Amino acid sequence: MSLRTSKTHHQQHHARSLRGASPARFTSIRPSVAYRQRDPAGSNRSSSFSAPEDWHEPRGRSRIAYIAHPAGNDFIHPVTIAEVRERIAQLPEQFTRGIEVVQFSSMTHKRQLFPLYGMQWGPNIYLYPVEASLVEIHRRPPTPQQRVEASMFGGEWSPSGERWRLTWTAETIRDFYLNNVLIHEIGHVNDQRNTNSAARERYANWFATEYGFRASRGRR
Questions:
Q1: What is the rounded CA–CA span in Å between residue 179 and residue 209?
Q2: Distance between CA atoms of residues 183 and 125, nearest Å
Q3: Distance spanning both ends of the chain, measured CA to CA
Q4: How far apart are CA 212 and CA 87, in angstroms?
Q5: pTM
Q6: Contact call for residues 138 and 155 (beta carbons, < 8 A)
Q7: Model confidence at 22: pLDDT above 70
Q8: DSSP single-letter state for residue 188
Q9: How many angstroms separate the CA atoms of 157 and 30, rounded?
Q10: Nearest to 182 by CA among 64, 85, 65, 92
């Protein structure tokens, strides 16, 4: 089990919209980026530090490319490509046409210093591994928002000495990734209006609740 701080939030840096631009322009334009961060100690790091290890050049793909890398020692990918493909297919087509790549990334040394659940980088989505034990160890107690979010998807917070544990099961972490992490990042891909980080987060949170949590529970 690796040590995590308890603050989980989304941060984003938006330079300009990439949709509708010609492929040649992407080489000189910094893409919008958003990520679910698990380590507040890294909150002051630049978005270049948190950039994905594999940058996929936007190509205007007509179909989503799925790429899987090994999770890494003591880590697992909580969902499969087949599950992600099926979940994306359940969304209205208007929300998926802008996605080019969904990558299952490895847990590298750099990523352990700046741990994420998921990241949106331009038209691409990166999903990161979780501990194989399905137990996250955090330095700080969860915020009220973290408690609510975990309980929505079956995660359980509990004190452990001076640390805090966030415990999942295979089923609950799969639910969390398919109906929260993935859908949140798709929300960022589709947000072509907001440039303010707080506004983009509000939109992605709304998108994940509406098209992730509520839709998966038959509440839409």
A1: 8
A2: 10
A3: 37
A4: 9
A5: 0.79
A6: no
A7: no
A8: H
A9: 37
A10: 85
Q: Per the structure block, which two tokens stand in for 78? A: 């909580």
Token code pair at residue 149: 């979010």
> Phi and psi at residue 212, in whole multiples of 5°?
-105, -80
Burial status of residue 100 (CB atoms within 10 A of its CB: 0-12, 13-18, 19 or more): buried
Q: Supply the DSSP string of 54-68, one letter for each residue.
A: SPPPP---SS-EEEE
Each residue's pLDDT tens digit, 89-140:
999 999 999 999 999 999 888 777 778 899 999 999 999 999 999 999 888 8
**Strands 101-104, 124-127: pairing kind:** parallel
Q: Which residue has the tokens 């038209």?
A: 123
Classify residue 33 by burial, with Cβ atoms within 10 Å: 0-12, 13-18, 19+: buried
| Residues 9, 175 contacting (CB under 8 angstroms) | no
Three-state DSSP state, 12: strand
SS percent in the chain: helix, strand, coil, step 5: 35, 20, 45
Tokens of 124: 């691409």
Q: Which residue in the block uniquely carries the two structure tokens 């969860």? A: 142
Instruction: Please state the length of the chain.
Output: 220
Question: What residues contact 133, with CB distance under 8 A and at least 6 apart?
Answer: 1, 74
